[in-house]
Automatic annotation (TrEMBL):
Keywords: DNA-binding, Transcription, Transcription regulation. Coiled coil: none annotated. It comes from Leucobacter chromiireducens subsp. solipictus. InterPro entries: GntR_C, TF_FadR/GntR_C, Tscrpt_reg_HTH_GntR, WH-like_DNA-bd_sf, WH_DNA-bd_sf. It comes from the Bacteria. This is FadR family transcriptional regulator. The keyword Ubl conjugation does not apply.
Length: 245
């Protein structure tokens, strides 16, 4: 892990900047569930900040359910949206389903727009900055694999910023189901550019604390993706028909 590559922001305090950067590494999968962070003293040396700043940043991440800190064991990364063991049966049942992509998109249309509305009313200033940085990362020319990582991180962050762990958990399970399609034939360069425009609109509505607009933009985004999937499926069926004929 290249700790020296972490950014420094002018608009946030040092602890908030650290927590934002560490959270993005978790959301994007750079820091994986079960991974152990360096000790506070080592992190402070690597990042050239005080141990007090490190401690405050880790406390924020712990409050958000992103890390688990225990004396004698250290700091362990948790999955975004991870909740108590009581949810294990739900997670297992969801993961075992062989669900059609159209069914997942229908679920997204039901779940994601209200989540965006809630986030617009609950997101903290550091949350809004995190979303902006994710949007900017998607607006540059990246590989479809990298875009898929950022896409997932953006939608997971929106769910995370409802500060409702159950909504974050539901969104995480949806993301697991659609992960293959995020880097599949559906993700053309034109499709990624259209998604980036939609992501910025969602972010801007959340930043403006406009819940109704955030919900509308999220719904429009999901419906647009659904139409593209339906069009791609129809084209593939036509090609298969010609091949068989």
């Amino acid at each position: 892990m290249d700790w020296g590559s972490m950014s420094r922001g002018e608009t946030l305090s040092v602890p908030d900047r650290l927590s934002v950067d560490l959270e993005r590494l978790i959301l994007e999968g750079e820091l994986t569930p079960g991974e152990k962070l360096p000790a506070e003293r080592e992190l402070a040396q690597l990042l050239r900040v005080s141990r007090v700043s490190i401690r405050e940043a880790l406390r924020e991440l712990e409050n958000r359910g992103l890390i688990d800190r225990r004396p004698g064991r250290g700091t362990i990364i948790l999955a975004p949206g991870e909740v108590s063991k009581a949810s294990d049966d739900v997670i297992e049942a969801f993961a075992s389903m062989r669900t059609e992509l159209t069914d997942i998109m229908e679920l997204r249309a039901i779940v994601e727009p209200p989540i965006a509305r809630i986030t617009a009313t609950r997101a903290q200033p550091r949350d809004v900055i995190q979303l902006e940085e994710l949007v900017k990362s998607m607006e540059v020319d990246v590989t479809k694999e990298r875009y898929a990582e950022l896409d997932r991180a953006f939608h997971q962050a929106i769910a995370q910023y409802t500060h409702n762990p159950l909504l974050s958990l539901i969104n995480e399970q949806i993301a697991n189901q659609i992960a293959p399609s995020r880097a599949s034939r559906y993700q053309t360069k034109a499709r990624r550019q259209a998604s980036s425009v939609a992501h910025r609109r969602i972010y801007e509505a959340i930043a403006a604390r406009d819940g109704a607009r955030a919900e509308d933009e999220a719904r429009a985004h999901v419906y647009d993706i659904s139409r593209e999937i339906a069009r791609a499926s129809e084209n593939n069926s036509t090609v298969r028909g010609h091949n068989l004929g």
